[in-house]
Design goal:
By secondary structure, the protein is α+β, with helices and mostly antiparallel strands. The protein has a single domain, classed as Aminopeptidase. The chain is built from eight helices and seven strands. Strand 4, helix 5 and strand 5 form a beta-alpha-beta unit. The longest helix is centred in the N-terminal third of the chain and has 24 residues. The radius of gyration is 20 Å and the shape is globular. Bound molecules: coenzyme A. Keywords: Acyltransferase, Signal, Transferase.
Length: 195
């Protein structure tokens, strides 16, 4: 076989390998959380938060992750959704809880290598379908208004900013608590979506 033919074969093999690995990372499923998932979610959340380094919010990447007891509570209420790869390993999660009669989204995180492939959107749409069936009329959350994968991302899914004051004392308490954790209150907002 000529050198040219060998080079073409090598290029074709490399192309197939690349295509296979791209397909591999693009496939995912969404399922309910199991207790065995809980200890694996810290690394997912930590990996996801690395994105904040790109907007000078690196302290979030180094900050505390969700309390496992809180995650377990959400799992027990069936309000913790896990995105998994082909091997059923968590690559993302979304958790929330009843808060003042609204379904309040506490955290959505997708591990760095899997971001921008629709995993976050799929977690959101699974959550919205389920909580709508459960009878919730509204979903709330707090986020950074001007960060592309926060306020803008939620706005694309129909969330709108609402005044924290109008939402009541408990929402103001969340904002105050976030301020104590170093989150700039002027950049944060409450968002809401009617179902
Ligand atoms: C927010 C987050 C969960 C989104 O998950 P994801 O799987 O990357 O998002 P998706 O692939 O479903 O995103 C879909 C849309 O968001 C856009 N998007 C995703 N990441 C983006 C980024 N870094 N910058 C700009 N747009 C982005 C995509 O372009 C896409 O837009 P389209 O629907 O118009 O095509 C993920 O970015 C993350 O884990 N971020 C760190 C943790 C975080 O900020 N959580 C939210 C706390 S309030």
């Amino acid at each position: 076989m000529s050198n040219n033919a060998l080079a073409i074969l090598a290029m074709a093999a490399a192309y197939v390998q690349q295509a296979e690995s791209m397909e591999e990372v693009s496939r995912f499923g969404i399922r309910r959380a199991r207790s065995s998932d809980i200890s694996l979610l810290e690394s997912v959340e930590r990996s996801a938060a690395q994105l904040f380094r790109t907007v000078n919010l690196g302290f979030l990447a180094d900050g505390p992750t969700l309390d496992p007891a809180v995650l377990s509570g959400m799992a027990k209420s069936n309000h913790l959704w896990i995105a998994v790869n082909d091997w059923d390993q968590p690559i993302g999660f979304l958790g929330g809880e009843n808060f003042e009669g609204n379904f309040h989204l506490v955290e959505v995180s997708v591990a760095q290598d899997f971001q921008g492939r629709g995993v976050g959107k799929a977690l959101m749409s699974n959550m919205m379908d389920q909580v709508r069936r459960e009878g919730y009329k509204t979903i709330t959350l707090t986020t950074y208004r001007d960060v592309p994968w926060n306020g803008y991302w939620y706005a694309k899914m129909g969330f709108v900013e609402v005044y924290a004051q109008a939402m009541g004392r408990k929402y103001l308490d969340i904002m105050v608590q976030e301020g104590k954790q170093g989150l700039d209150q002027a950049s944060r907002c409450v968002m809401m979506k009617a179902l």
